[in-house]
Write a structure and sequence with these properties.
It contains 7 helices and 10 strands. It is of the alpha/beta class. The chain has a single domain, classed as Rossmann fold. The chain has a 7-stranded parallel sheet, with helices on one face. It has a 3-stranded antiparallel sheet with strand order 4-8-7, with no helix packed on it. Helix 1 crosses helix 2. The longest helix is centred in the N-terminal third of the chain and has 16 residues. It is globular and about 40 Å long. Bound molecules: fructose -6-phosphate (F6R).
Length: 239
């Protein structure tokens, strides 16, 4: 079931998302599924602020990130590993051994290893953004609903959307990523999806009101028992 929360702007989305995140973090020993990109930055800032005020701790938190680019050095500033260190991990008391991200190598065994690792945990809260084409994680349209962690060829639209992180030069954007699959994401106890801006409006409409179809990967969330979607006015334009 999808619970929809509409708020005014990015700041309000981050604020509301933090309330939900905090309820989970208050349980202390938790496993979080985390996302990168523009959408969660404001939420991560609030998590760091709250940690600095001694309201929350990450000591007993384990994290699994959704995805990582293939072939991009982990130390590259735009690797998702660097993103997470910059925006969250280096700023809180998380135990480095409890941080998990998909590996950036092209061997398919690395996908199986990540899935094995995940199968020993249940994600209490999975944070998601959504692509303008309806992707979640990097599960592009056409991805099987049964998919587990796998290597993905990024769509042209995703490469274009992400060029802003690579000097607006599409030739610098990696063309592949390793991503949790849709079936992996669906195993999470609770899912929180956040989206802002008008270029997400169609994807948000299709996810909530469209047919459940692999053409809109996020539509699979209609089949999950506990999903909260927080959107700003622009992303909510069509609903
Ligand atoms: C990121 C991820 C992607 C993004 C999506 C939206 O880890 O899995 O699905 O959440 O592409 O990206 P932003 O937030 O940059 O618009």
């Amino acid at each position: 079931m999808i619970k929809l929360i509409k708020v005014k702007n990015y700041n309000e989305v981050s604020k509301k998302a933090f309330e939900i995140m905090k309820e989970v973090l208050d349980k202390k020993t938790v496993t979080l599924g985390l996302a990168t990109g523009s959408s969660p930055i404001g939420l991560y800032e609030r998590m760091v602020d709250s940690y600095n005020k001694n309201e929350i701790s990450f000591k007993d938190v384990t994290t699994f990130n959704l995805d990582e680019y293939i072939g991009l050095d982990v130390n590259h500033p735009e690797s998702y590993s660097s993103f997470m260190n910059r925006n969250l991990f280096s700023k809180v008391d998380i135990n480095k051994n409890n941080i998990n991200l998909p590996k950036n190598g092209s061997d398919s065994k690395l996908s199986e290893e990540y899935e094995d690792l995940l199968s020993n945990h249940q994600i209490d809260l999975q944070l998601l953004g959504i692509g303008s084409n309806g992707h979640i994680g990097f599960n592009e349209p056409g991805t099987s609903f049964d998919s587990l962690t796998h290597i993905v060829d990024l769509n042209e639209s995703t490469i274009q959307d992400n060029a802003r992180f690579f000097d607006n030069d599409i030739s610098k954007v990696p063309t592949q990523a390793r991503s949790m699959g849709l079936a992996t994401i669906m195993k999470s106890k609770k899912i929180l999806l956040i989206a802002t801006s008008e270029n997400k409006a169609q994807a948000i409409y299709d996810m909530i009101h469209g047919e459940v179809t692999i053409d809109c990967p996020a539509s699979i969330l209609q089949n999950h028992p506990d999903v909260t979607v927080i959107v700003d006015e622009d992303a909510a334009k069509l609903i």
